[in-house]
Each structure stands twice: as structure tokens, then as C-alpha cells.
Amino acid sequence: MFISDAFAQVSGAAAPTGSMAGTIIQLGLIFLIFYFLLIRPQQKKIKQHEAMVSALKKGDHIITGGGIYAKVVKADDPMDLTVEIADGINIVINRATVREVLTAELLKAALEAKSKMLDKAANSNKKTKKQN
């Protein structure tokens, strides 16, 4: 009365014929794919970052994870760095927050961008003062 003809026909069907070995092989292949596409590249990236951070020395120019451009002033502590973010302004940061060490080319480009931005801000201030 409550059972339809479709359910009645399915109930007599044979059990699935897949083997346990086939399932294990499929799971193993999925794990290998994940390992080579996700886990292994991430481990390489972590090792490269650790090598970069451990090689920091006084005078290096860096970018922190927060986007702050800084110059390393003191790199004696294995966990922290003292960096100069402006003339005479030093802060202490954790080594792990260093995102990138700037090369000479990148440093030159960053300084040019900074000078353009400062010129633009100075011109904007002059216009504002003239209007008042």
C-alpha cells in the first residue's frame, strides 16, 4: 500500500560488486594527487621562507606582511628583528612577518614611488592652502 512498484523492484537487486581493494587503491591515488599538488609545494614554500628569514642581516630592506617597507637595523635575536620604518623610528617585529627581502631594483622602484607620492601630497597641500 505505501510501497511503490519501483521500491519493490529495487529490493531484490544484487549487492554492489566493487571490491575493497579497488576502494583502497582509489583512496591512495587521491591522497597521492593531493600530496603532489597541494602538500609538497606548500612545504617547499615554507622552507624557502624560513631560509630567507634566517638569512636576514643588518642593512637589508624588507617588506613586512602588513606592507610596511623597512630597513633591518638589528638582527641578533632569532625570533625578532629591529627595523627602521622612518628616519629615527625603530620598531621590533617578529621574523615570521617578513614577506619579502627587497633587491636593489625593487628598492629603487619603491623609493621612486614613494617620492612621487610625497610630491603629489605636497602639491595637494599647496592647492588646499591657496584655496583657504
Topology diagram in text:
Blueprint: H1 5-10, H2 20-54, E1 61-64, E2 69-74, E3 80-86, E4 89-94, E5 98-101, H3 104-131
Structure described in brief:
This protein is an alpha+beta fold.
What does this structure look like?
The protein has 132 residues and is an alpha+beta fold. The protein contains three helices and five strands; from the N terminus they run ααβββββα. 52% of the residues lie in helices and 20% in strands. A five-stranded antiparallel beta sheet has the order 4-3-2-1-5. Strand 3 and strand 4 form a beta hairpin. It is elongated, with a radius of gyration of 30 Å. The termini are far apart.
Which key terms come to mind for this protein?
132 residues, alpha+beta, 5 strands, 52% helix, elongated
C-alpha termini separation: 89 Å
Please give the number of β-strands.
5
The count of helical stretches stands at 3
Main β sheet profile = 5 strands, antiparallel
Global outline: elongated
Instruction: Return the structural class.
Output: alpha+beta
Q: Which consecutive residue ranges, at least 5 long each, have pLDDT under 50?
A: none
List SSEs in N-to-C order.
HHEEEEEH
